[in-house]
Amino acid sequence: MSERPEPLEPPDRAYGAPEGETEAERRRRRARFLRDLAEARALRDRVQPRRAKVARLRHAMRMRTFRW
User: Fold this and answer.
1) Residues 52/44, Cβ–Cβ less than 8 Å
2) Among 28, 10, 30, CA closest to 20
3) Which is it for the CA torsion 8, 9, 10, 14, positive or negative?
4) Which stretch of DSSP H or E encloses residue 52?
5) What pLDDT does residue 45 have?
6) pTM for the full model?
7) How many CB atoms within 10 Å of residue 26?
């Protein structure tokens, strides 16, 4: 069997990270993404309150039945 070839780009570059990005820049970009995601979820919850309520109840049920 042949060995796997090494990836041509480091993992960060494979996911679209800019060339020469520092750890702090990556964290800022990630924080901005997570803020935007939370904003989008909040908007969806306001626009579709019934679906949001069902999702909250489903999540609560999952958390009650989760075993550590």
Assistant:
1) yes
2) 10
3) negative
4) helix 49-65
5) 85
6) 0.51
7) 13
DSSP class of 26: H
The phi, psi pair for 10, rounded to 5°, reads -60, 160
Between CA 45 and CA 47 the distance in angstroms is: 6
Tokens of 39: 């904003």
CA distances from 55 to 12, 33, 48, 52 (A): 33, 22, 11, 5
- Report long-range pairs for 14-22 (Cβ below 8 Å, ≥24 apart): none
Over residues 9-67, the pLDDT tens digits come to 555 555 666 677 899 999 999 999 999 999 998 998 889 888 888 988 999 999 998 77
Which amino acid does the sequence have at 8? L
